[in-house]
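Quick one, T. Sequence first:
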Amino acid sequence: MQLRSQRYAVLLLVAAFCSILTLPFAVAQETQPAKTEVFAGYAYLNPRGKVGTIRLQDAPKGFGLSSAYFFSRNWGFVLDGGAHFGDGLQVGTLTIGPQFRWPTETVSPFGNFTVGWHRLGVDGLGTSDGVGISTGGGFDLATWSKRFNFRLFEASYQYAHHNFGPGLRVDNSGIRLRTGVVLKFGQMGPPPPPPTAACAAQPTEVMAGEPVSVTATPSNFNPKRSLTYSWTATGGKVSGSAATTSVDTADLQPGTYTVKSNITDGKKGMAECSATFTVRAPRPPTISCSANPSTVKPGDSSTITSQGSSPDGRTLTYSYSASAGSIAGDGTSATLNTAGAEAGPVTVTCNVKDDRNLSASNTTSVNVEAPPPPPAPPAAPEASRLNQISFKKNSARVDNAAKAILDDVALRMQRDADAKIVIVGSNDATEKAKALPGQRALNAKAYLVKEKGIDPSRIAVRQGAKEGTTAIIWLVPAGATAPEDGTTTVNEPAAKRR
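Structure tokens:
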């Protein structure tokens, strides 16, 4: 019986150590392990060994207590104690040492090594105090409360040496099994951030019937857990249970709608998020219209250019009309022919329509110029005052100053071969010779004819101007009339006889 119990204890101990080595790779760590763990529970001891001829029996009755304080997620120190009672046997322990743990969300393995006080009491021999060593491990099973765990089992190897007198030495090399409850206090570090999620819709604006895709992006969930998504919407139909859902917007009225996602990890982790999208009312297209050139001569053409745009990205068609003339074209440009159009503005209307028969129009104007007026008749030529000669009082002699002036007049007549001149002689009131004005005009003509070779038929002489001792020279272009106001023609033959 004792041999079977020893083998059973050894198997449990081996299983505990194997579990400690393999479980961390299969179970996710607990995010916030406790800082202090207190254990209380039942203990079974197989002490093994004998004192003299007395074989130590199993101690099926007992209890165990321990308190572990952790300075990191995995390492700490444990103070362990217990009492065991069997047939003629009493054992008490109080040890301390390091403890290792791997806290997970379901089953947390641990192991420790402790050294301390060990008391062995045997009926008929008394008690002996010594130093004991304990090493082993086990599993704590998580429950509904983060402050309370169930110790599934704990298996430890225990060794102690006792001396009850000469020939009564004993080496305990046995197995201890325990189970019970674990209370947890405090936590390592600040609390983890709660799970959150963000939802985004794409696109955020659609026409009724166009699909909307909504994606939920979770944060702070345990990466080892599978997430489940559920979707609801205030309008339209959602489908699927993945991180992205598609919303059917068929038959939705214009307005704003909300899509909501609920995310869970199958445990305590959950989060919600929502996104909105807008169903737009159909928007008509717009159009701009211009003419080049904007002003034309009667019968000329102008190019009409239009630019249509659909806010909803629809297919567009174009058409044109004009208030006069004719226009041809059905794309973004057309040609206005102004043949037959009266002078003034011609209004061109540019029309655009989408594939839903929503339309828009705009206008531009082309100005048809009035025909030019007939050319005005040329202005009649006019005589102009060319120069004048000054004479000495009571004299008609052409001096050098007068000759210089007449030389310039001759040059002008040579340049203007069709022009004529009129020389008007004048006197002042103090001069008594009545023929003096005519003589002055004749002497100037004589110089031009004799000295400059000017045709005498191109020179007329008159008298009677009241402008002092002068002879006024007028240039008379072809077709012009010489001025005659207040003057008379000089009778050249009579003047020459005098």
